[in-house]
């Protein structure tokens, strides 16, 4: 019984850490990997869309889709190699950073 | 990547400059004019949009090219220092006031003057 309780607590802790994310880490990753197309303020430019005001779940699922190498939209060829090396943590950090700007 | 197909058109004009073979989205060019530019008076400025894809280094700069006055030869190429940071530079044009006006992909127009 005690073991079962401990297990549940670990899962809960893991989830809350993942959801919290690190805004500062997301900001740095954005500046080095995303800003050259989506712009320093993430409002988009040319054919590169704005990332402001998007649903967090949407941004996360799009990044996961690109990371998996699946095409969605005209700029998939640019996004797939960019997302390829992102960890789950990187994606959450980017999402919380972008959500904080909305 | 060469833009000119010399196999099909052997007599085509050879480029003066090839950006080290990189495709970095060259977007615009203008000549700086006026004494206010000092040593840069008469230099050719060239802007780049490039997003740095597929192993190509990031463009997003403005080069200042020193062309020889007596013929099509490049003497020197430098990069313009940018106090406001880099951007996808789309258009360069000299203004009637002797400043260089620079448009970027975020929809901003900036006025550049020599320091």
SSE inventory with pairings:
The complex is a heterodimer of chains A (102) and B (115).
Chain A: H1 2-20, H2 23-33, H3 35-38, H4 56-67, H5 76-83, H6 88-101
Helix pairs in contact in A: 2-6, 4-5, 4-6
Chain B: E1 26-31, E2 44-48, E3 62-67, E4 74-79, E5 89-94, E6 100-104, E7 109-112
Antiparallel strand pairs in B: 1-2, 2-3, 3-4, 5-6, 6-7
Report on this model:
The complex is a heterodimer of chains A (102) and B (115). With 102 residues, chain A is mostly helical. Helices cover 67% and strands 0% of the residues of chain A. Chain A contains 6 helices and no strands. Mean pLDDT of chain A is 86; it is low at 10-18. Chain B has 115 residues and is an all-beta fold. Chain B is built from no helices and 7 strands. In chain B, the strands form 2 sheets. A 4-stranded antiparallel sheet of chain B has the order 1-2-3-4, with no helix packed on it. Chain B has a 3-stranded antiparallel sheet with strand order 5-6-7, with no helix packed on it. Chain B starts with 25 loop residues before the first strand and ends with a strand. The chains are: A mainly alpha (102), B mainly beta (115). The A-B interface holds A 36-37, 39-41, 43, 45-46, 78, 81 and B 49, 51-54, 58, 60, 85, 87-88, 104-107.
What structural keywords apply?
heterodimer; A: 102 residues; mainly alpha; 67% helix; 0% strand; B: 115 residues; mainly beta; 33% strand
Largest sheet of chain A: none
- In terms of structural class, how would the helical and strand content of chain A be classed? mainly alpha
Kindly state the percentage of residues in helix of chain A: 55-70%
Extended strand count of chain B: 7
Helix content percent band of chain B:
under 10%
Distance linking N and C termini of chain B: 36 Å
Gyration radius of chain B, in Å? 15 Å
